Amino acid sequence: MMSFEQLTQMAGVICPMYVIIDAKGRIMSAGPTLRKLRPDLTWKGRRFFRLFDLSRPRSVRSVADLHRTAGSKLHLQFRDAPQTGLKGVCAPLPDGQGAFINLSFGISVLEAVRDYDLTSADFSPTDLTIEMLYLVEAKSAAMEASRQLNTRLQGAMIAAEEQAFTDTLTGLKNRRAMDHVLARLINGGREFALMHLDLDFFKQVNDTYGHAAGDAVLQQAARIMVECTRESDTVARVGGDEFVMILEGVLDRSRLESIAKRLIARLEEPVIYGGHQCRISASAGTTLSTGQSKPDAAELLNQADLALYAAKRAGRAQHCFYREGLEKEEVGPVTAANGASLSSPNGAPAEDGSAA
Amino acid sequence: MHGLINRAIQAFVTTTYGKARWEKVMEEAELGFTEFEAMLVYSEEQSSRMLTAMEKVLARPLPEILEDMGTFLVSNPQVEALRRLLRFGGVNYVEFLHSLDDLPDRARLAVSDLHLPALELVEQAPEQFELICQPGLPGYGHVLMGVLRAMADDYGDLVFLDHSGRQGGAEVISITLVVTKFAEGREFDLGAHSL
Questions:
Q1: How many of the other CB atoms lie within 10 Å of CB of A164?
Q2: B27-63: buried (b, 16+ CB within 10 Å) or exposed (e) per residue?
Q3: CA–CA gap between residue A46 and residue B33 (Å, rounded)
C-alpha cells in the first residue's frame, strides 16, 4: 500500500492545487500551487472551512456535508483577500478518514495569474490553463486588429458618404444629392415646387471682409433656409452662392410666395462677423412640377433659373414664378438693383439692403 | 497571403528603414495602395510583387531581409503580443522548439483564416535538432531563422542555426543548442497582459 507521503508527492505532480483534509476538517496536506496562493500560511492543521468559504452548495458546513457532494462541482473562495474564486471537487478518503479535494481557478484564472505571479510551471502539463491564456491573448490581439480595421473602414465610409452628398461648408445637400432627390420625386410621380435662390451682394461681402466672412454668411444663409422649410424638404447648395429648394406637395402659389418672402427677409438680416455687419439679400425663382405633363429634371431646373433671372430683372429681393413664354422674354441687362457695384456710403457692401 | 503577414513586413520595413522607404517599396510594387490591412487577405501575386519590390528598393538579398524581419517580430516592443504568444509555447527553449509543431494550429486558433506551413521538429541528439518547414509560404524558413535566433536570446540560450537548404520541397533548419541559460534572457510574466 502507498504511504501518505507517496500519495501527496504524486498528487503534487498531477493536480498541484489539491488539498487533503482529515475527518475533522483539518488540512493534512496542500499542493504546491495552492500553497503559492498563501505563501506565508502554515497550511498543515489549518481548518479547511475557516480558510475557504463555500458559496455553492451553500449548505456544506462539515466534512460529512462535503462527503455528500462527492463528485459534483463546488464553488468556494478564500475568506481573506484576495478572495480568489475557486472551483473544486471532493473525493472522500476511505474509512471516513477525510477527503481529497482538487481545486482550480475556473474563469478567475486571468486575475489569479496576475495576482499570484504564476508561471507555466505552476500548472500541470495536462492542464489546459496555459492554452486558455494563450487563446485569450491571441484573440484579444486579433480582435484589436479587427477593431482597428472596422474603425478605419467606418471612418472612410462616413467620409465617402458625406463627401458624396453633403456640402461640407454648409452641411446642406450638394448638387449630386439634389439630382438624386429630383430624379426620385419625378420617377415616383410626386408633385413639388422647385425654388432656385441666389444670394445678392455675396461677392461684395467676400471681397470686402474676406472668405471667412463669406463662409459665415453662407452658413447663416443655410441655417435660415433649413429653418424656413420643413424637414422633409430638400435644401441644396448647388453653386457658390446658389441654392435649390425642393418642396414636396407645396403647389399653392401664395404659400410659396410667402415662403420666398420670409426667406428673403430673414436673409437680409445682417450677419455679424469679426465686428462687421455683413448684409446680403436674395432673389428667388420658382417652378412647379405640375406645369409639365411629364416633368423633366433639367427642364424644371432651367425654368426655375429663368424665373430667378426674371426676379433679378425685377429688382433685388424679388421672387418670381416661372410662366410659359419666359424663355422668349428679352433678357435685358441686369439692372443696378442686382448691384455688382452697389455699396453703401461707408464702404460696407449693401448696408442698404432693402432698396429696390 | 494573409494581411497579418503583409502587415508584419510593412511594420518591419517602416520601423527599420523609415516610412519613406516603405512608400517607395509600395510605389515600386504598383499595387495601388501603400498600407496593408492586418485583417484582410491579399493575393499571392500582390504579396510577391511587394517582396520583389522590397528586395530591389532595400538593395539586399531577400533571405537576409526576411531573417531580420523574424528577429524584429520577436524583439520589437511594437509586436510584443507575438513574442508573448510564442513564449506560451514552453518554459524553456527546447520546450519552445517542440511547441513549433503546434504553431500552425495555434495560429489558426487565434485567426481562423491564417494558414501557416506545417513545421516538424526532429530531435537528432539531445541538443541537436532539425526543423523541417513545409512549403507554402515563400521565405518562411528565413523568417523562422530570425524568430528562432531571437527566441533563443529571449530564453537566454546560445544556439547555432543553419539554413541547410531544401529536402524535397521543404526547407530545413538545423539547430544546435550550445549553452542553456547562457544569459539572463527576458522576463515572461503570464499575467502581464492587461485584459
A1: 11
A2: ebbebeeeebbbbeebeeebbebbbebbbebbeeebe
A3: 67
Q: Is A121 on the interface with B (CB under 8 A)?
A: yes
CA distance A274 to A271: 10
- Give CA separation, A220 vs A22, A48, A154, A349, A352, in Å: 85, 76, 30, 17, 19
Q: Where are the alpha helices (DSSP H) in A188-296?
A: 202-209, 211-227, 253-267
Distance from the Cα of B114 to chain A's closest Cα (Å) equals 11
Q: Which residues pair with A102 in a beta bridge?
A: A18, A89
Say if A156 is an interface residue toward chain B (CB within 8 Å).
Answer: no
CB contact under 8 A, B88 and A119: no
Contact B99, B151 (CB under 8 A): no
B114-120: average pLDDT = 92
Candidates B82, B90, B109; nearest CB to A135: B109
Closest among A126, A109, A64 to A90, alpha carbons compared: A64
Give the pLDDT mean for A138-146.
Answer: 83
* Residue A145 C-alpha, separation from nearest chain B C-alpha, in angstroms: 7
- Interface touch A137/B193, C-beta < 8 Å: yes
Please check the confidence at residue B80 and state whether its pLDDT lies above 90: no
Residue B83 · residue B74 · CB < 8 Å: yes
Residue with the three cell numbers 504598383:
B30
pLDDT class of A331 with cuts at 50, 70, 90: low
The set of cell numbers assigned to A241 is 452662392
| B18-35 confidence digits (pLDDT tens) | 999 999 999 999 999 999
Say if the ipTM goes beyond 0.90: no
Residue A180's identity, in one-letter code, is H
Give the integer Cα–Cα distance in Å for A5 and A11: 10
Interface of A with B in 84-113 (CB under 8 A): 110-111, 113
Q: Would you call A120 an interface residue with chain B, using a CB distance cutoff of 8 Å?
A: yes
* CA A354 remoteness from chain centre: 45
Distance of CA B10 to the CA centre of its chain: 13
Tell me the C-alpha distance between A337 and A255, whole Å. Answer: 26
Q: Where exactly are the structural domains of chain B? A: 3-59, 70-179
Residue holding cell 432627390? A181
Cβ-Cβ pairs closer than 8 A, A with B, add up to 62
Q: What is the mean pLDDT of residues A290-296?
A: 89
Retrieve residue B173's grid coordinates: 533548419
The answer to whether residue A109 scores a pLDDT higher than 50 is yes
User: Please, what CATH class does the domain formed by B70-179 belong to?
Assistant: alpha beta
CA distances in angstroms from A225 to A216, A255, A305, A314, listed in the order given: 14, 16, 18, 22
